[in-house]
Amino acid sequence: QVQVVESGGGLVQAGGSLRLSCAASGRTFTTYAMGWARQAPGKERESVASINWSEGTTYYSDFATGRFTISRDTGLNTIYLQMDNLKPEDTALYYCAIAVRSPADYDYWGQGTQVTVST
Length: 119
Prior knowledge:
Elements: E1 2-7, E2 10-13, E3 18-26, E4 33-39, E5 46-52, E6 58-60, E7 68-73, E8 78-83, E9 92-99, E10 108-109, E11 113-118
Parallel strand pairs: 2-11
Antiparallel strand pairs: 1-3, 3-8, 4-5, 4-9, 5-6, 7-8, 9-10, 9-11
């Protein structure tokens, strides 16, 4: 079993920055990847960014490219999402996820952390 816990959400003005953290614990020794997704009210959940655990290769959705940066600390089993130049449309519940059975799908998800960007 794996537990995933996000932190770092909050309220920020447009143009501001936030840094989200996600710590994984439990049976994480076969981690393939971790990533972030978000879901705004009335919308489907969408991928934000992901990172390959062994190589550190990163992937970003178009809206995140150039504004968000995902990073990892393998010793702490933790990933981060640095979000800069935030926009009101970035307001959403941000989820962290981990893939431990295969690189194709995430197996465990956190409860989410709320990010609200005001105008």
